Amino acid sequence: MKERIIQTQACVDEGAAWLAQNCHRFDHVMAATGQLPLRRRTDGFAQLLSAIVSQQLSVASAASIWKRVQDADMDKPANIAAASDEDLRACGLSRQKIRYVRALVDADIDYVALRELPSSEVIKTLTTVSGIGVWTAEIYAMFSLGRADVFAPGDLALQEAARLLFDLPTRPTEKELRQMAQAWTPWRAVAARALWAYYKVAKEREGIAQ
């Protein structure tokens, strides 16, 4: 059976309604967060390159370096292949990031073909590239390809949101959260949106409490 693709806000709203109906905790989430965001992105080389550039950086630092990469026109495979390491370092990339960026260029992924692959194959394909882990591949499948039933249980914010929402004694591990998320099929990507939104609301409340 072909996987459901989230294309419009109506798709997210449908998933949110299903979750609220099938799990009363998500009904609580929707009341706290309001309408969940669509969060669709374009797909392709630049999206994965941006993900690699942003790894282990603050939002501000990642945005600054990504702007330098774009300004230098280094968000295209051919330009990166022709560039020296010094050129890439001038954009703010570390030695390790340069290695990952070159690995992405060398992988020569068929991004159009990815749109037709099952999510499991998308993740398998992407994680063969040095510098792309499961989390990055799952995020790409969720937001760049719009897969409705992909989740990213390794995400710390999702783990913490699940701890808060389900009143767990400790933050669930990646394995535990992956197992929990089985109950949210076929809308696990909407459950992720809900948990991220809930995490943001919870953190804002903490800030007010302080």
Task: Report strand %.
Answer: under 5%
Which stretches are poorly predicted, pLDDT < 50 over at least 5 residues? Answer: none
Query: In CATH terms, what is the architecture of the largest domain?
Result: Orthogonal Bundle
Q: Mind telling me the CATH superfamily name of the largest domain?
A: Hypothetical protein, domain 2
Distance between the termini: 49 Å
* Helix/strand order, N-terminal first: HHHHHHHHHHHHH
Largest sheet, in brief, is: none
In CATH, the topology of the largest domain is named Endonuclease III, domain 1
Q: Class of the largest domain in CATH? A: Mainly Alpha
Q: Please tell me the total number of domains.
A: 2
Find the structural class using helix and strand composition. mainly alpha
Count of helical segments? 13
Work out the number of β strands. 0
Quote the average pLDDT.
95
